[in-house]
Design goal:
heterodimer; A: 263 residues; alpha/beta; 6-stranded mixed sheet; 4-stranded antiparallel sheet; 37% helix; globular; B: 255 residues; mainly alpha; MetI-like fold; binds adenosine-5'-triphosphate; binds magnesium ion
Chain lengths: 263, 255
Amino acid sequence: MANLIEIKGVTHAYRTPNGPLPVLENLNVAVPEGEFCAVVGPSGCGKSTLTRLIAGLMKPDEGEVWLHGELVKGPRKTVGMAFQNPVLLEWRTILQNVILPLEIVAPSMPKRDREARALELLSMVGLEGFETKRPSELSGGMRQRASLCRAIVHKPDVLIMDEPFGALDAFTREDLWQTMHDLRAKEPFTCVLITHDLRESVFLGDQVIVLSGRPATTQYVLDVTYPGPRVIDGLYTPECSDMLHTLRDQIRIAQGRSEEEAA
Amino acid sequence: MNDALRKIGVPIAAIVVFLILWELLVWANGWPNYKMASPSDLPPAFAKYWNLFLIMSWQTLWRTVAGLAIAVLVGTFLGMLMGFSRIMRAALYPLLVGFNAIPKATLVPVIALIFIGQHNFNTVLMAFMISFFPIAVSVGIGLSTLEPEYRDILRSLGASRYTIFTKIALPKTLPEFFGALKVAVTLAFIGTNLVEIVSPHGRGLGALFKSGETNGDYPLMFAVLIALAFLGIVLYYAVVFLERTFAGWAERAEH
Ligand SMILES: Nc1ncnc2c1ncn2[C@@H]1O[C@H](COP(=O)(O)OP(=O)(O)OP(=O)(O)O)[C@@H](O)[C@H]1O
Ligand SMILES: [Mg+2]
């Protein structure tokens, strides 16, 4: 299968008052179409930078980012983004929030079709009946569900998520993992998920990429073979334990390297 | 019912109590009219000059609103410059702060000399000059503190800067904008009256006050003060009404 996302030899440094800060160094990532790619790595290693490069929000100093066989030169309408902060617009209802990307991507789409599309997604994530509510009237988990709907309402090829469940409690988070699987079953998309939660990366990912400490390169790639159907109980099997151990060790190595460099 | 009582009854009761205390104060001290007029002197003053009050109030009102409208346009524009460009912020901020620090009374003779006899123009200009600063600052801060994620959800779809501004940045700064507009409207009102009082042959409530002073008609002066207070309240609540209409979403439900 063709790779939908291909990151080839990407190197990037931020220009700061104290000189350039190298963040990514010769990073290579390939994500086949329809796959779910989880990315873990030490804090501050450049994961958010990676999402901004894939989204075309910035250009790498060196190397190339390819999406769907096209070189990424700037933002494109075929990506969806979700962040740790759901960033819903307080002056819009939930329904109007979800519709927002369609206003940009498909301005000629009739209002009724837009609303029907948004309602379909809202009911998929269990938010039917909340479409006329304001974001402030929803719980954190519900806001994040609405934010997910907004990220995929325009049927993007790639969904980029930067720690979307990071601020939620453990049970709400597990609910949302399940929601992600349900959504993918109905709406296939290729996904890049940045996370700090190794269990999340194994439960959701088809592959887990471990980034080294800053400047980040691909340190390790784990191909997830989930035992049985993707249900939470699977995380307590020996197979998952092994994978989690492997990832834990890799993170330790990644952190070790960043400590050496800091010293 | 209870709600209506609290919203309308309580303020009216407060005003009545205030008038009674005022009346008592004048009565207890035995102050004559020329020292301090009492509320009971006011209805005759209003009755005597009611047509003047109407004409002059209108003058003061439209000039204040015109000055404020220009302040909104210019202030928003300056705020946008400062909010979007760090260089503009660095360049404009000290200039604006310095200009704002100048007591506006000192500018009255200056503009009166530059634009001799242009009473309307001078008054509107002063209302504008005194009131655009809070608007510029609030819009500037509102725009520059917009979280990058808000911008990114639209920018990642290839939305233009203009679209991001109208769909996100502008509505998101509305609460700050109206907060500043409440300050600006009172300032513009003060600016208008400043010019009306100081200018010879002026018009508006300020000029009416001045004529009361020249003729030693103290009840008239106090009646003007009350009319000014009333007009100030009307203007302020007009802004509150606009705020409820356009930025009501920012108000949290009461607990
Ligand atoms: N606009 C910027 N200008 C300068 N430095 C930046 C900028 N954005 C990020 N950095 C720095 O680059 C490094 C990587 O940032 P990035 O946000 O990509 O890390 P991250 O892996 O997402 O971190 P976290 O896990 O805490 O979210 C950090 O040290 C950060 O301080
Ligand atoms: Mg990050």
